[in-house]
Design brief:
- The protein is of the alpha+beta class.
- It has seven helices and 20 strands.
- It is globular and about 55 Å long.
């Protein structure tokens, strides 16, 4: 817990941009999760820098959250300062058909801008939930294309809040559903993407095609965190879970989607424990049947309820 004096210090740094003991169920796509000690929403890089310095000086754990996708917060909440960069939404076209986008931008804003500007190359991201920051940290993509294929550089603020670094090309360590090599506690700020010119009509046609495809193969209209497990080599997690007979299986208010078995959806009264139990159930049944241990793609944070 954050003591009274430290809370006052956070309020001084953040002014109106900090909330204490806020349920994370309001800020995660699964709609589950206990309270965070504090949630901070910096309005600028300068304020973010002050916040990171304060956390560093007072030994406060902190982690950055985007749109709340790909994150399961446990029922006991988070003993940390949760930093939301939802206000970081600068978006612009740069010379050479490059796109500059800050991490708080939702995918639909980026898609609309690219269509209007005639910039092609990010169509594959349409419908992938979350913000630009989540896209980058998860190296989001589809079977034929990922963020690593279009990102030319990223901007990162170090954990102390004192410096911003631009990491380019060969400095970026993208792997399957991961961006590695960024020091823990750093804040990802923005990225540049190398795109190509195309007509708005061509871009719109492709985004519509992918949107329709996604809507028929994924539970897009129900709360979920996106894909739960990484795909093992040579197969998919969804196929393995389906073959284990778990499609549609539910525990409490959480269910393995009957549309796509690598999605867990929630409804009504639900706890993080229900979701976590489904994750464990899928791992156990698939391993029992195939010997393959499914690795979670979703980030699990926080503490279990007492």
């Amino acid at each position: 817990m954050i003591d009274v004096e430290t809370r006052k210090g956070l309020q001084k740094v953040m002014e109106e941009g900090v909330i204490f003991d806020i349920p994370m169920s309001r800020h995660t796509s699964l709609r589950v999760g206990g309270p965070a000690d504090a949630m901070a929403l910096p309005r600028s890089r300068e304020q973010l820098s002050e916040l990171l310095r304060f956390c560093d000086e007072h030994n406060l754990d902190q982690f950055v959250i985007g749109g709340g996708f790909n994150t399961l917060v446990l029922d006991g909440g988070v003993e940390a300062v949760v930093i939301s960069l939802a206000r970081f939404r600068e978006l612009r076209r740069e010379p050479g058909n490059q796109l500059y986008a800050e991490v708080g931008l939702p995918h639909h804003r980026v898609t609309k801008f690219c269509t209007q500007e005639g910039l092609s190359g990010l169509e594959f991201g349409v419908g992938i939930p979350g913000s630009v920051g989540g896209w980058l940290m998860m190296n989001a993509g589809i079977s034929t294309r990922e963020m690593k294929d279009v990102v030319t550089s990223i901007e990162v603020m170090d954990p102390s809040g004192k410096e911003v670094h631009e990491l380019k090309g060969d400095q970026l360590q993208f792997s399957y559903r991961s961006l590695c090599g960024i020091p823990a506690g750093s804040a990802l700020l923005a990225a540049r993407f190398q795109l190509q010119e195309a007509s708005p009509e061509e871009i719109l046609a492709e985004t519509r095609r992918l949107t329709e495809q996604r809507s028929t193969t994924q539970p897009v209209n129900r709360p979920s965190c996106g894909s739960v497990f990484q795909n093992p080599p040579g197969t998919t997690a969804g196929q393995l879970i389906d073959e284990a007979g778990l499609k549609g299986f539910h525990i409490g208010g959480a269910q393995i989607s009957d549309i796509h078995a690598n999605f867990i959806v929630t409804e009504g009264e639900v706890q993080a424990t229900d979701v976590l139990s489904l994750i464990t159930k899928a791992q156990e049944e698939v391993e029992k049947r195939t010997g393959i241990h499914l690795q979670p793609e979703v980030r699990i944070v926080g503490r279990t309820a007492e």
